[in-house]
Amino acid sequence: MDKSFFLENHLLVSSILIIIILIIFFSVKKTTTLYKILFFSLSINFISYYSILISNKFFDYTIHLPIHLCYITELGILISLILKNQRFYPILALNSLGGGISGLTNSNLVLESYWIEFSHLYLSHLNLIFFFLILFKEKFYINKKMFLKSIVLNGTIFFLTLFFNKIFGSNYWFTQNRPQGKNITLLFSDWPYYLIGLIIIGLFSYCITFILLRKNKHT
What we know:
69% of the residues lie in helices and 0% in strands. It is built from 8 helices and no strands. Helix 3 (31-55) packs across helix 4, helix 4 (69-83) packs across helix 5 (89-105) and helix 5 (89-105) crosses helix 6.
C-alpha cells in the first residue's frame, strides 16, 4: 500500500477511522476512561511526529510547527489535560468539531509528504472529534459570551499567524497560498478568495458547534 492509496481514498480511510472511534466511544461508558484514551492518543501523536521528524532531519519550522488551527487546538487539549484545567475548553470545543471534520474530508498532503505526516493528519483530526464527543457526552455547555470570546481569540491568533508567515515565509493557516492536495479550496479562486471562503466555512462550523453545545443547557 503506497501513499497514492491514501491520497485517492482519503474519505474512505477517514470513514473507517471514524467508525473505529465511534465504536470505542460507545463501548466505553466512563468519560474518565475516554479522557485517558484521548490523552494516550494525543501523547503518542505528538511524540512520534516530532521525534521522527527531528531524528530523520525532516523537521522544517515553516511547515511542522503546531501553528495550524487544528494542531494548536490539539496541543491546547493535551496541555489542558496535563494541567487538569478547563479554562480554554470553550474555544477548544468550538475548534474541534469543525476542525476535525475538515481535516478528515480534506487533505493538504501530496506524494512528496512524509509517511509520518499522513498518520499525524489522521490521528490529529480524529483526536479533535473524539474530544468533542467526550465534551458532548459530559453535556459541556457554552454560552454566548464564551462563543464571542473564542471568536476574538481565534481572530487574534489568525493575525499573529499572518504576521509570522510574513516574517518567515511560511504558510500556516494557508494565509499566503492555497493548501496542496485535494481540498475544498479548489472550489474557490486564488488568494484572497479561497482564504475568505475558508474563514466563512470556519465561522459557519463555529455557529453549528455553538448551537449543539448550547442545547446542553436544556438537557
